[in-house]
Amino acid sequence: MTEGTAKVPAVILAGGRATRMGGGDKGWRILGGKRLVDHVIARLAPQVSAIALNANGDPDRFDLGLPVLPDSIDGYAGPLAGVLAGMDWAASLGADAVVSVAADTPFFPTDLVMRLQQAAGPSGLALAASPDETGKVWQHPTFGLWPVALRHDLREALEGGLRKIVLWTDRHGAGIATFSSDPHDPFFNVNTPEDLAQSEALIGAAG
After folding, report:
1. What is the mean pLDDT of residues 132-158?
2. Which residues are annotated as a binding site?
3. Is 27 helix (H, G, I), strand (E, B) or coil?
């Protein structure tokens, strides 16, 4: 952490239904001899003060030794519901903000949290972004810094039917931290068996 930044807690978003992977807990697929979620935890732990897992269903199926936070919004409300669960948990710890990462993205930057903190807008919000092969910059809204002071506003928005993350973050002037995609997009996520095979190749190339 650099001067002016402080460690914050983080929530791993694992509440998706993994339909393109045949269902189940996608973060428990094996990559390079370890589960996807183990890769995520290894990259995240040095950057944050505490980690929780956002997932629905029976929490006893997880063996990570982490708090398991279910969505507090009824129905499948998408990643924002997991962000809200993380914000409420962070508030209970006395933290000012929480960082979110996705459970299926094993190569995200090791300076993610610091860069998000540096990019935060006046509201304290920040999202990660990276360019594609054409140079177009895409936001990755499951990777963000979320001030707990906005959690009641987010809950109200979700209860009103909002599901698209950027509609809410744009409303609050989120800052953007843009990361390099050289040699590959650090936010490459594993949605399909083909993506898992591609990730194996990336790990092999790094090794």
Report:
1. 96
2. 13-15, 26, 54, 71, 104
3. helix
Torsion sign across C-alpha atoms 93, 100, 104, 73: positive
Kindly tell me if the per-residue pLDDT of 137 is higher than 50: yes
Q: What residues form the annotated binding site for GTP? A: 13-15, 26, 54, 71, 104
Annotated binding site for Mg(2+): 104
User: What is the reported pLDDT for 119?
Assistant: 98
pLDDT value at residue 26: 78
Pairing of strands 126-131, 175-178: parallel
Q: Where are the domains of the chain?
A: 10-206
Q: For the structural domain made of 10-206, what CATH number should be given?
A: 3.90.550.10
Q: Would you give the distance in Å from CA 70 to the centre of its chain?
A: 15
Quick: pLDDT tens for 40-59.
999 999 999 999 999 988 88
